[in-house]
Design a protein that fits this description.
There is one protein chain. By secondary structure, the protein is α/β, with parallel strands linked by helices. The chain folds into two domains: about 180 residues, HUPs (Rossmann fold); about 120 residues, Rossmann fold (3-Layer(aba) Sandwich). The protein has a seven-stranded parallel β-sheet with strand order 5-9-4-1-2-3-10, sandwiched between helices. A five-stranded parallel β-sheet has the order 12-11-13-14-15. Helix 3 packs across helix 4 and helix 6 packs parallel to helix 9. It starts with a strand and ends with a helix. The mean pLDDT is about 95. The chain binds flavin-adenine dinucleotide. Flavin-adenine dinucleotide binds next to helix 7, helix 8, strand 14 and helix 9. The site of flavin-adenine dinucleotide (FAD) has 30 residues, from helix 7, helix 8, strand 14 and helix 9.
């Protein structure tokens, strides 16, 4: 029987990262194409955490959950976590290993793949199983101008996937999940890095963007600081978070933390409003999963309109003040 193993990332606040549920949903689809492969999760955490999230695992369609708990694992450590993950992967021998392309996942995945001498396709935006039963992992390449589907010649076939690329299941996929507790073998790990403390970032916009229901994003078409101020006023009116294209970031109108796209964040809000953004593929890959997209652009042929549900063709400096006035009243 084929096996798919997902890494269940735990955030520093001790939550399961939502990318696990997105991957779990996709894994069910892949499993069906592999004659109902076993879908399991790997949880590495402080003691007692699995108990808190048992329901979540059971409701997400996992056949098994491998649990390595130890209070030395309270915070993510590259050395300890990769040692445990590698030990368990060697034992379980999965055909496919999927990890969220988060900061933690991007650190962990290459450690595992290089140690196991296997291939890793990073930052995927689509996964499938080809006619030969291999993982077909798709990611942007050549600066986002092409999509490359990459096959891995070695086993396990590994991939990291950006959060928000897949949707979590819309309903519970209850399974009779088996929880396999593993004693972590970490006494002799030569730790070169010691965790001391977390220092809170002064910028909170990234997190806001991650969970925002509405995002208003500005591009080069907003031209100057006054244009972005207008955008911010509009965002405040409708309770939206502000995002930006790289064009706007490069002009110094917005910080890189709020850049959306291939080299920025991937978002999937309920509503995405693009103002003065042309719709380059590198931007589209970061926002096309939004439920509804409205675009404001003075060029009727702007590529952004091809992915938009509603097109407002006109000058953002006229449309935004009109919308602000309407919403304020
Ligand atoms: C490797 C690589 C990675 C990249 N990563 C990203 C990424 O993560 N995110 C990203 O966004 N880009 C990324 N890019 C850049 C991308 O290719 C585009 O250059 C960028 O998205 C363009 O930004 P823009 O749409 O704001 O600017 P432009 O393409 O210049 O578009 C401005 C738009 O504003 C419209 N406009 C002008 N005036 C007005 C007005 N008064 N009212 C209304 N509309 C108006 C214009 O018609 C035009 O469509 C990347 C590029 C490369 C090579």
């Amino acid at each position: 029987m084929s096996k798919i193993l997902l890494y269940a990332e735990v955030t520093k606040e001790n939550y399961l990262h939502t990318v696990l549920f997105e991957l779990a949903n996709k894994a069910q689809e892949l499993a069906k194409k592999l004659d109902n492969a076993e879908v399991s999760a790997l949880l590495i955490s402080k003691k007692g955490l699995c108990e808190l999230y048992k329901e979540a695992f059971i409701n997400s369609g996992f056949d098994k959950v491998y649990v390595a708990e130890d209070n030395r694992l309270t915070y993510y450590s590259t050395e300890l976590y990769s040692k445990i993950a590698i030990d368990i992967i060697k034992e379980v021998n999965p055909d496919i290993v999927l990890i969220g392309a988060t900061t933690q996942g991007r650190d962990l995945a290459p450690r595992i793949s290089s140690s196991l001498h296997t291939g890793l396709t990073a930052d995927c935006i689509e996964l499938d199983i080809n006619e030969k039963g291999q993982l077909a992992a798709t990611r942007p390449t050549f600066g986002g101008k092409l999509m490359a589907t990459i096959l891995c010649k070695t086993s396990p076939q590994m991939a990291t996937v950006r959060p928000k690329v897949f949707k979590p299941a819309s309903q519970n996929l209850v399974k009779n999940t088996e929880f396999v507790y593993v004693t972590p073998d970490i006494d002799n790990v030569n730790k070169k890095v010691e965790f001391i403390d977390f220092v809170k970032s002064l910028k909170t916009s990234v997190n806001e963007l991650d969970s925002a229901n509405i995002i208003v994003a500005g591009g080069k078409g907003l031209k100057n600081e006054a244009g972005f101020k207008l955008l911010k006023t509009f965002a405040d009116c409708i309770g939206a978070s502000v995002g930006a294209s790289r064009g706007a970031v490069d002009m110094g109108l917005a910080s890189t933390e709020i850049q959306i796209g291939q080299t920025g964040k991937t978002v999937s809000p309920k509503l995405y409003i693009a103002c003065g953004i042309s719709g380059a593929i590198q931007h589209i890959v970061g926002m096309s999963e939004s439920d509804k997209i409205i675009s404001i652009n003075n060029d009727p042929d702007a590529p952004i309109f091809e992915v938009s549900d509603y097109a407002l063709v006109g000058d953002a400096f006229e449309i935004l003040p009109a919308l602000i006035e309407k919403f304020k009243s």
